[in-house]
Amino acid sequence: MKITIDSSLCSGHARCAAAAPEVFRLDDDGYALPYDGEVPPELQQAARDGELACPERAITVEQ
Ligand code: F3S
């Protein structure tokens, strides 16, 4: 599973990090940072939770 964050859509709502802080981190301005590499199995549900939490649909989770 991979996570793509469209920085042109991210508006800094921070709901991804609130829903799944173990997956999503924010930069100093409150925008989501890229997630590098594969999401381990134990974090995949959290990744989906963060995807659904973003009101801008800036997060895409793909198998
Ligand atoms: Fe950005 Fe959406 Fe998270 S707007 S900070 S990716 S909730």
Automatic annotation (TrEMBL):
<keyword id="KW-0408">Iron</keyword>
<protein>
    <submittedName>
        <fullName>Ferredoxin</fullName>
    </submittedName>
</protein>
<keyword id="KW-0249">Electron transport</keyword>
<keyword id="KW-0411">Iron-sulfur</keyword>
<keyword id="KW-0813">Transport</keyword>
<dbReference type="InterPro" id="IPR051269">
    <property type="entry name" value="Fe-S_cluster_ET"/>
</dbReference>
<keyword id="KW-0003">3Fe-4S</keyword>
<keyword id="KW-0479">Metal-binding</keyword>
<dbReference type="Pfam" id="PF13459">
    <property type="entry name" value="Fer4_15"/>
</dbReference>
